[in-house]
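Researcher: Here's the sequence for the chain we discussed earlier.
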Amino acid sequence: MDQEQRHIGENLSLAFDTLRSHKFRSLLTVLGVLIGTTTVIGVASIIAGLDHRLASAVKDFGGRSIYVYKFSPGIHLGRLTREQRMRKPLKYADAMAIAQQCPDVEKVAVEIFQWGPGPNAKYKGQEMYGVNFSGVTPDDFQVTNADLAEGRFFTEAENDHRRNVAVIGADVVTMFFQNQDPIGKDLVVDGNVFKIVGALKKRKTFLGNNGADSAVTIPYWTYRKIYPAAKENAIVATAYPGRIAQAEDEITEVLRRLRHDKPGARNSFGMATADSIIRQFHQITGTVALVMVVLSSIGLLVGGIGVMNIMLVSVTERTREIGVRKAIGARRSDITWQFLLEAMTLTGLGGLLGILTGYLISFLIRTLVPALPSTVPLWSVLAGFVVSISVGLFFGMWPAMKASRLDPVVALRYE
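Model: Thanks. This is the structure I predict for it:
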């Protein structure tokens, strides 16, 4: 065992001596490996950062929340189908039925809004364009885990009596009331005056904005008073701990019955939870990861071919050396491992340089683009290094075998 370790140590020493004597050639040889490893680290860091940010932002709105709308809430790629666009909106009565008939649902809230750009908000000559204006039932703040920075939420009585009161998001506070208390101030939205009763703390965001921080939220029935034609209702329900799946089944049963969905037909509504939204994101990032593998494989293939070529040149240049080593007792396995370790050392150094470059790219992204989170996962570092070593092993095999098969007599005569 000690002899084998000594052989490995000697071969590694020879490998580093060769790399030191051909620094520039070695760098050009591993450039493909470096690029491939950097691609793996860079893309994996962005995906991991986005995944963490999305999970944090979604669960900030309630890990036990179930979002119900006429089509599936969450991440959508591509256009909605005609059947989805033609679906009837959910009703306030649907939410009340869920509250009464679903034993695993703890709380239910209703949100009403209109499609299109939001109205502008005004305060003393200042104007904020396109605020997220909606009406909600009072339970909505608890269901979506909203935290107050100042003031209070509006009450059931204010909702029932259609009072012109509002709770505003953190960005609205920053826009109009940066150096003053917003509570009790009058805010004008779409020509209607609302007295501010509460201001929310800043919410966790995904890619910089989730709409909650630019929100002006008023009571549900106040919104219906101002916009009697508004029909777009979204329902948010909170399941009891550990009962999310059962609550989803109960909501599905109630809504299918109320919306007259035929047996065997697909649901005429959509549901999503924090976990299902995260799963949707994983499906998207899985495709990105596949593209990443293809791109990095091209770089590694180019690097591997470069390593094989340079090792073949090295074998030719060192033919006489190989002959001398064989003449003084070196075995074929010794020669094979000498060149294999040299190739693996070459690509391993390329992998390490790629990992360092990937870390640098991740740091620069995190520093220069805070909205695009980036964190390097340990698995990508390990995968990048192992794959780079494997490239050296695979593409160094032929040159190593060629060197080990040289006839020592012929090799000693080589000029």
